[in-house]
């Protein structure tokens, strides 16, 4: 269990860390909402690491967005209530997209498993019929 938690933590930190650096670089070019790049990064985290990695990625995205991209920059204070609403909406969207992808990934795995079971049954039936 401890090893699994380390894996999920490493996946989330590696992907979100790299993407945070990219978002900070985009901010230097005057991009209006560079934190939006964290959404696809969270989606990649779901694909690689699964649900726990996604939850950690959402948490990291929230912290990074709040600290680096919402005024006053470099602080966990909010300049006004509208930035709090922005943060809540952003975290909600990231969490919802990650949840949808996680459920879709799990459903795909279940269908693949059922498909393999049906293939094995078909093989047994066709072998029995040919004898």
Task: Quote the distance from N terminus to C terminus.
Answer: 48 Å
The profile of the biggest β sheet is:
none
Helical element count?
4
Number of domains: 1
Cα-based radius of gyration, to the nearest Å = 21 Å
Count the strands?
Answer: 0
Quickly give the structural class: mainly alpha
General description of the model:
The protein has one domain (2-102). It contains four helices and no strands. The model has no long low-confidence stretch (mean pLDDT 90). Helix 1 (2-28) runs parallel beside helix 3 (51-69), helix 2 (38-49) packs parallel to helix 4 and helix 3 packs antiparallel against helix 4 (81-130). It is mainly alpha-helical.
Summarize the helices and strands and which ones pair or pack.
Elements: H1 2-28, H2 38-49, H3 51-69, H4 81-130
Helix pairs in contact: 1-2, 1-3, 2-3, 2-4, 3-4
Brief summary of the model shown:
Helices cover 82% and strands 0% of the residues. Helix 2 packs parallel to helix 4.
For the structure shown, list the relevant keywords.
elongated; mainly alpha; 131 residues; 82% helix
